Amino acid sequence: MPYVNIKVTGGTEAPSTEQKAELIKGVTQLLANVLNKNPATTIVTIDEVNQDNWGIGGESVSVLRQRKA
């Protein structure tokens, strides 16, 4: 029973419900194709992490996106 956890930043750039469904379907199919895993027992979770709680290069994603804008 494979378990895949996808983490993405939340907020304005969070994936839509449709994009999340596509990720779940695609990852499930990938595991079936590559590792012969049963899709019925494959678990995929998506966690949205607040941008203030995700850091890259010593700064939060919130700060990086504000600077980019």
Automatic annotation (TrEMBL):
All copies of the 4-oxalocrotonate tautomerase-like domain together span: 2-62
Q: Where is the active site?
A: 2
Principal EC category: isomerase
Q: Does Isomerase count among this protein's keywords?
A: yes
Gene3D superfamilies named among the record's database cross-references: Macrophage Migration Inhibitory Factor
What the entry lists under PANTHER family is as follows:
2-HYDROXYMUCONATE TAUTOMERASE, TAUTOMERASE-RELATED
Family, per entry? Belongs to the 4-oxalocrotonate tautomerase family.
Q: What is this protein called?
A: Tautomerase
Q: Which organism is it from?
A: Saezia sanguinis
